[in-house]
Amino acid sequence: MIKYAVVDAVEGTPTTPVLQLPTPRPATPDAVAEAIAALVDQLSTRPQAPDPKASIGVALPAVVRHGVARTAANIDPSWIGTDANRLLSERTGRPVHVLNDADAAGLAEVRHGAGRGELGRPAAGTVLVITLGTGIGSALFVDGRLVPNLELGHVELDGARAETRASAVARERDGIDWPAYAERLQRYLSHLEFLLSPDLIVVGGGISARHEDFLPLLHLEAPVVPAELRNAAGIIGAARHAYQAMPTAVQ
Ligand code: BGC
Questions:
Q1: pLDDT per residue over 179-198, tens digit each?
Q2: 77, 69 contact by CB (below 8 A)
Q3: d(CA 201, CA 71)
């Protein structure tokens, strides 16, 4: 699904409901660009239409360097090498800023959700945000500054890529109960904790709605908390990323 909304990027709140559109199949850059252009047109006719000059933030489940997709673990391989900023800006007629989906969710959580510190600032220290979905996404913040494109879902765990064992989809595929899943997550997160020594771990992705079933079973040195912004996190973070790219933005 492509999820979208008009967002007040300063407040970090969607001003429309979070809407969904089935991802086109195959989800090639052209097909996705067409779908995004259509949904922007459709949003523009709503009462809460975005400012005609507002820019667009897009979160993609891939490494995205300066707007160019570099990997395609769970998406159409034709994204690799695509200048997504350029393609989507051309199709929508607005400035578009693309970033990794977990980076987007993390930006939202450290600014407006479970990773925020005092006075609306991101928490100080090292904050690790992990999203559990089809794959595993990761975002690392050091005193509120993002280290972009960290692919921690791809570290090796028990001889396999971690996301093939500990993602939400891996749990469903293997039909394991919550304690068995928590055991896998424990192995994964304690490995990351050893590597990165975070001060706080935020766990997001759709599965975090069920956090009471597995987070209390984890034993880590850092506090582990569920993400707060749920399915709006990626949208809010993408909007924040687009906003920060504006020359007039208050950072
Ligand atoms: C991708 C990441 C993405 C994560 C979550 C992984 O398979 O490599 O770029 O952030 O899935 O969607």
A1: 999 999 999 999 999 999 99
A2: no
A3: 25
Q: Is 119 left (phi over 0), alpha (psi -120 to 50) or beta?
A: left
Please give the distance, rounded to the nearest whole angstrom, from the Cα atom of residue 217 to the centre of ligand 1: 25
Tokens coding 100: 């990794």
What distance lies between CA 40 and its chain's CA centroid? 20
Ligand 1 contact, 130 CB (< 6 A): no
Q: Where do we find the tokens 């600032």?
A: 121
* 1-10, 38-47, 105-114, 131-140, range with the lowest pLDDT: 38-47
Domains of the chain as residue ranges with CATH? 2-103+233-244 (3.30.420.40), 118-228 (3.30.420.40)
Mean pLDDT score of the chain: 94
- Per-residue pLDDT for 51 more than 90? no
Atom of ligand 1 nearest to the CA of 149: 9
CA distance 17 to 185: 32
